[in-house]
Task: structure prediction
Amino acid sequence: MNPRLAVWVVNGLLAGLAAVSVFPLLWMVSVSLMPAGASTTLPTPVLPPAVTLDNYRTLFGGVGMGRFVFNSLAIAVLATLISVSFNVMAGYAFAKLRFRGRDAIFKALLAALVIPGQVAMLPLFLMLKPLGLINTYGGAIVPAMASVFGIFVVRQFARGIPDDLLEAARIDGASEFRIFLTIVVPLLTPVLVTLAVFSFLGSWNDFMWPLIVLTDDALHTLPVALAGLSREHVQDNELMMAGSVVTVLPVLVLFLALQRHYMAGLMAGGVKG
Amino acid sequence: MTRSGIVGWTLAAPALVVIAVFFALPVVIGLALSLTDFDLYALADLSTSRFVGLDNYLRLLQTPLFWQALGNTLYFVAVGVPLSIGLSLAAALLLNARVAKWQAFFRTALFAPVVTTVVAVAVIWRYLLHTRYGLVNHALATLGIDPIDWLGDPHWSMPAIILFATWKNFGYNMVILLAALQAVPRELYESARVDGAGTLRQFTDVTFPLLTPTLVMVGIMTVAGYFQLFAEPYVMTQGGPLRSTVSVLYFMYEEGFRWWNLGFASAVAFVLFLIIFTVSAGLWRFDRDPAASRP
Result:
């Protein structure tokens, strides 16, 4: 192909694909700023005829979206803090400490990756019922408190820590826990950030488990609340778009800010969190 | 036990306990449940449920809606996976082209839908696909195509969901494939070019064989993920019209949490697991056995 033509074709196709990828998200913001009913007029407007924040007012006033934002935030933050702590401890242990059954357990964990999470959902619901964890934040975060994927990624990374470094600290008389906290954790910081981003996004975007375990309206997360609203308010496009903006914007901003770490995790695992 | 043995166990224990109690145990209980007639009426008391052997599985095979759900899900997987991975590969090749500009910007833009919340973007797409006001039909109209009732016509509802899922997911595999492409040594292309290979031959003789292991891995992950279709029909079509978008998981959710047929729903979960496992194992052969990957 003519090189100048190739430049145009390749970049033209990329620009087209990028437009298709991003347009629905930009349009969501645009519609959320339209007055009620404006989006269902012909020809369908791309930009708001008049910019208004009414939809957001209704959302946070009448619908009580603030509560759902809080629920989502609380559950995602708790799940992230707990899972990152547990995964880094286990990942380091599997990488650097010898303990009985270590290799057999690790193999079993990897084998368990083939089982889809939904297989455990129904029985887990029944288990949590007598424990009083249905309709609690605890119930929502329980399955996310540790992950094989997280342990795997930490282990890969921790294997790169030189043994000499750990040995030297042991000879100096440092306890194993001190070594973990003062030497290992600082060295693992990049992978911790990666895991935290994955965990936060996964928890924030999760739908099926919170839908099952949080039946009380007051405890709904944003996706569960939005799904409910979208069934009730089929006609209120502008309101629903505002709800989508509130749900999507935090994760998009987080992703754009920490993109490098997110991509690193994608490469390291190549496995869906 | 050695000192590091005790420490090792102590550090690994919290994660292992979580996985054992909240994942492994429920899986075992689920398997046991699928062999009982446990339902809403027994919910208060487990002892009233009876062991029924494989009855749930046999009943499942005689339930028309299950077969319909399985057919819908296979449709989604069989069309959606090749479409998604094809687009991922095309986008990765474009990004990896030497003439591509603003690579980082394009990569971020194409990846953005991946990190969004399924429910929220499904709400957007439900409107984009609206028969009268949707911009998809407006775009088609400029090509002279009559409006399509995407979410109201049982023939178009699944294609609509496949379209949405492709848009949402292709960026994920694109990034993985792009990394694999960047790992191909430039010298291989140079020597292929010296041997007179054109762009197409370079792709079929150099790129594709080196990419096969990554494609197989990406294929297995995507197939497993697509078999777990749930949120998209839940928000966009509620399984309709005429149950044309009821997926296996949607069926399980309704049986389990709407009708509280818990033993029966557990059987659905295990059948889905078996199907995913079998298909993944089949795909795995393409990586291990080079003969299987040649048509």
Q: What stands out?
A: DSSP finds twelve helices and no strands in chain B. Chain B touches chain A through 91 residues (CB under 8 Å).
